[in-house]
Amino acid sequence: MIDFHAHTLLSDGELIPSELARRAEEKGYRALGIADHVDGSNADLVIPRLVSVCCDLREVMDIDVIPGAEITHVPPPLIAPLVARCRKLGAEYVMVHGETLAEPVKAGTNDAALKAGIDILAHPGFLLPRQAREAASRGIFLELSARQGHCLANGLVARQAVAVGAKLLVGSDAHSPRDLLCPEDHLRVTRGAGLSDEDARKARQNAERFWAAIKKRRG
């Protein structure tokens, strides 16, 4: 399993990074991205700590623990500068908390996130065709969420993405060890979104390729 969407108690998760990584390792994960929720108030506190602990953990564990950031409920005009700030602080990937049906995310968040050059748009909600096309043209991954509530629009996101060739990923959005996925869970998410076996295979390959790109950037 490769998963780029998990949270620790550095934001609203239940576990410290070391325990979450160990739980994922025990479950057979090969890579776990920790993308705690950030805005302008805490990015400079959370990201360097994640970078430090993730680098230490992956040196001694049988899992690659990847420090990321999930920009969450930030007003659209502030997203682009915060994306740049997160990268400067050492986040190896940046995602934005998209316009999920489950929360009152500000309208315009999806558009601002796509224009800001993020890596992953998490649970985009009622994704528009033009937004799927922009994600495809920019190489931005669109998430199929395994999390209750956020998963409500997975079918729409999948249809829009497949229609224009945008890249899909499955994310657990794990806040506790109970949320970590097994391969059967991953398959249920893709099937539940209406993906064909071939498109589900592509989603798994997308995770592999993104992980490979992250490792290549490390040098």
General description of the model:
- By secondary structure, this protein is an alpha/beta fold.
- It has one domain: Alpha-Beta Barrel (TIM Barrel), CATH 3.20.20.
- 45% of the residues lie in helices and 19% in strands.
- It is built from eight helices and eight strands, in the order βαββαβαβαβαβαβαα.
- Strands 1, 2, 3, 4, 5, 6, 7 and 8 form an eight-stranded parallel sheet that branches.
- Helix 4 (109-115) runs parallel beside helix 5 and helix 5 packs across helix 6 (154-164).
- 47% of the residues are buried.
Secondary-structure topology with pairs:
Elements: E1 2-6, H1 17-26, E2 31-34, E3 37-38, H2 43-60, E4 64-71, H3 79-88, E5 93-99, H4 109-115, E6 120-125, H5 129-138, E7 141-145, H6 154-164, E8 167-171, H7 183-192, H8 197-218
Parallel strand pairs: 1-2, 2-4, 3-4, 4-5, 5-6, 6-7, 7-8
Task: Give the gist of this structure.
With 219 residues, the protein is of the alpha/beta class. The chain contains eight helices and eight strands. The longest helix has 22 residues, at 197-218.
* CATH class descriptor name: Alpha Beta
Helical fraction: 40-55%
CATH topology: TIM Barrel
Number of strands: 8
CATH homologous superfamily designation:
Metal-dependent hydrolases
Q: How would you describe the shape?
A: globular
- Proportion of beta-strand residues: 15-25%
Structural class call reads alpha/beta
| Rg computed from alpha carbons, rounded to a whole number of angstroms | 16 Å
Level-2 CATH architecture: Alpha-Beta Barrel
Main beta sheet: strand number and arrangement? Answer: 8 strands, parallel
Q: Helices and strands, in N-to-C order?
A: EHEEHEHEHEHEHEHH
- Total domain units: 1
Query: Could you list the spans in which at least 5 consecutive residues all have pLDDT below 50?
Result: none
